[in-house]
Specification:
Blueprint lengths: L17 E5 L3 H7 L4 H21 L4 E8 L7 H24 L2 E6 L7 H14 L5 E9 L1 H17 L10 H5 L12 E4 L18 E4 L9 H13 L8
Parallel strand pairs: 1-2, 1-5, 2-4, 3-4, 5-6
């Protein structure tokens, strides 16, 4: 199916303000191409740069990427170490580019489990880009949707324990106040590459009414045409948010 060229006259506000992506398929890409799985992760990092550029081009306000889940610690020690080293390397080499392109970087997840040098690199990168406003780039690292909800409930429980909140007053809004990404555009579109049809514990509170788009393309192969296709499909959908 041919994808229509995006017209310059098209109102870009019809595109999603906030896109979240489950970047799946790096290891399978490596296997398919008879390469080491570590090279699949490096190739996936190149795709991240391309999608960030496309998000700027199409005036996306927020891009949230699922980089490392709280379950990924179950992988081999060598792979986890490689991913942590790659994360740190990218932070150290790409942050200045983010700053120059007016992209703000925010890491969401339980970063306390990372080693000190990686935590330091995260703080440095966030501080260097904190005043940028062209695109908010959220990287979910050691993140899990259930962890996010439990973390929020703990904070609400503390308010109750301190006598600052009546349990009868607890509602969705109060829990949402302590959920990651609560103070920005809601997630309009979730893209998952790699051919799997599940959410994998990603932003399960935040995507209750998000549009979902699945593709069999492995993340390193996900390109401009694929991204445009997801956007064009999004604008054709009718979003009712539970109404008529």
């Amino acid at each position: 199916m041919k994808i229509n060229r995006i017209s310059k006259k098209k109102n870009l506000t019809s595109y999603p303000n906030h896109i979240a992506i489950i970047m799946d398929g790096n290891r399978r890409w490596a296997k398919k191409n008879k390469k080491l799985k570590f090279l699949g992760h490096r190739e996936g990092a190149k795709t991240v740069k391309k999608i960030i550029g496309l998000s700027l081009k199409y005036n996306i306000k927020v891009l949230t990427l699922y980089a490392f889940s709280s379950e990924n610690w179950k992988r081999s020690n060598n792979e986890v170490k490689f991913l942590m080293d790659l994360f740190k390397e990218i932070l150290n080499t790409e942050t200045i580019n983010l700053k120059n392109k007016k992209i703000r970087l925010k890491i969401i997840g339980n970063t306390k489990k990372f080693n000190f040098s990686l935590q330091k690199a995260i703080i440095k990168a966030e501080n260097l880009t904190k005043n940028n406003n062209k695109l908010l780039l959220n990287i979910a690292a050691n993140y899990g949707g259930r962890w996010d909800i439990v973390n929020s409930v703990k904070k609400v429980a503390l308010k109750v324990y301190q006598g600052l909140l009546n349990p009868k007053d607890i509602n969705e809004s109060i829990i949402n106040n302590y959920i990651c990404l609560n103070d920005i555009f809601p997630i309009d579109l979730v893209i998952r590459t790699g051919g799997e049809y599940r959410i994998s514990n990603f932003l399960i509170w935040q995507i209750a009414y998000s549009e979902l788009y699945f593709t069999k393309k492995l993340w390193p192969d996900f390109n401009k045409k694929d991204f445009k296709k997801a956007l064009n499909i999004f604008i054709k959908r009718t979003r009712r948010f539970g109404g008529d």
